[in-house]
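Task: complex structure prediction.
Instruction: return C-alpha cells for all chains below.
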Amino acid sequence: KQEVTQIPAALSVPEGENLVLNCSFTDSAIYNLQWFRQDPGKGLTSLLLIQSSQREQTSGRLNASLDKSSGRSTLYIAASQPGDSATYLCAPQDDYKLSFGAGTTVTVRA
Amino acid sequence: NAGVTQTPKFQVLKTGQSMTLQCAQDMNHEYMSWYRQDPGMGLRLIHYSVGAGITDQGEVPNGYNVSRSTTEDFPLRLLSAAPSQTSVYFCASMTRDRNYEQYFGPGTRLTVT
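Output:
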C-alpha cells in the first residue's frame, strides 16, 4: 500500500519568499505524480503532472521535481503571493489510482 | 466543456437512509473514480471504473456501491448511511490521451446524523 508523507504540515511565510514543499512516498513503482491545490471548502485543482520518466516539470512560478528511485518529489513556488495561500497535495499514481498525503497548508502573509 | 460535475453540493442524511451521489463528465474520459476526504487525512479511493460496465473496489469500498452504464456517468450509492460516512466526496476522471492526469469535481459534502 502506497504511503505518502508531506512535510511540513503547515507553513507560513511573508510575501515574496520562495516556498519548498516536500513529498515522500514508499512505493517507487508509480506511473506519474500530480501536485494539486485545494482552497478551503473547494475541490482539487491540478497544478503539475510529472510522468515517471521525467525529472521535473515547470509551469509559471511552479516547478516540481521527481526522484522516483528515492520516492521523493518537491514543489517549488517562486516569489510567493497571498493568493498562493491554500493546501497543496501530492499524489503519486499507480494502477489508475492516486494515493494522497494529508497535504501542506500554506499561508502567505501580505 | 463543463468538466466533472457533481450533485448535490450538500446533503444531510439520517442514519439508515440511502442516497445516490451523482457524477458526470463530458470529456469522454475512460476512467472515473470516487474518493472521500476526511479531516487530517488524505483522500482515499472508494471505487473506480476503467470503462463502461467495468468497476472495481478501492481502499474503502464498504457501504458503497457503484455502476457505470455510460462513459459519462458514475453514480455512487450509499446503501444504509452511517455517521462514519460523514465526509466530503470527490469524483474524478482521466484519460490515457492526457497521460492519466486526473480532473476532480467540486465535491459533495455529506453529513449523516
